[in-house]
Amino acid sequence: MSVKAFKLVSAVEREMLMGDKNYINIECIECCGKNLYIGTNDCFIYHFLLDEKISTAGKITFAATKQLHKYLGLKKPVSELKAASALTRLLVLCDNTITLVNMMNLEPVPTGARIKGAVTFALNENPVSGDPFCVEVCIISVKRRTIQMFMVFEDRVQIVKEVFTPEQPCAVAVDGYYLCLALTTQYIILNYNTGASQDLFPYCSDEKRPIVKRIGRQEFLLAGPGGLGMFATVDGISQRAPVHWSENVIGAALCFPYVVALDDEFITVHSMLDQQQKQTLPFKEGHILQDFEGKVIVATNKGVYILVPLPLEKQIQDLLASHRVEEALVLAKGARRNIPKEKFQVMYKRILQQAGFIQFAQLQFLEAKELFR
């Protein structure tokens, strides 16, 4: 049964990006605070400022203002963008090279510092160095079966470690010393400090695009066999039941308590609390779905959209209004980590009371008694 958890709101219309140039496609996006960066197939980076507006009726819209755009000088697409806000740097992957550019003027750093030979890369969101003016970057190298760890500073890069993998890696996420890797035939966890590795489960990267996403400290979300979204910790165990996706998921994102997935026709929303599918939004030609500091963004080749979450209290009240007491209580308990303690206790008491009256009206006196108690 459905819950209205998100609304899809347009952020960047195609005209703002490409005018009448139909050949321009969006290849990648990055969002950092109000700064939205878009990389295109014709080797440009666009910088927009996103302004969130709330009408008196509570409707949310986004106004994107173009700041500038920059041509990188190659005939290749910009494949990945990652912001390192502490350094005011944007890491740009184009033609197997990661270049450091200034986040505000998009100019390359004067020293020309870059990382060559990268197929794809990931930032370590749980860094081990303890240096606030450095980001740790893991790259899948163009060298066969090789992963490299770098420390990236404002104007220089330094290689820290090179690790060899049993098969060719094709996707990576990092947490501390742990790498979660999609290899050709399986997912593994690899500790790059000790070299210890742990097999997770088989997966054929030739048939489907692997998904490897860090969702919290020492925990990852993976696209498993049979259309399952699987959770795995660095110890190689799963502390949550899997969610049932479609077979052809392209991307996944987390917006607690929901896991959002994109396939070629729909955006689906599953609850991490009870694994149920809660919402389906038709969305054709989507090819990017990512979350940035809690903001979930989807994109087609021509436009960028934001999935705006409805307030959890509103979702709980909608469930109670439909007499879905169990689901409302599960969501209310899950909301604890998103709401200040005092406010949560007041809200939770009120929800228990409402749920009690619903059960009472349905002559479920024992359940109602427990809730009132």
UniProtKB/TrEMBL annotation:
Residues 23-296 form the CNH domain. Transmembrane segments: none annotated. It comes from the Eukaryota. GO terms for biological process: autophagy; endosomal vesicle fusion; protein transport. One of its GO terms (cellular component) is cytoplasm. Keywords: Cytoplasm, Protein transport, Transport. The keyword Cytoplasm applies. This is TGFA1 protein. It comes from Ciccaba nigrolineata. The gene is Tgfbrap1.
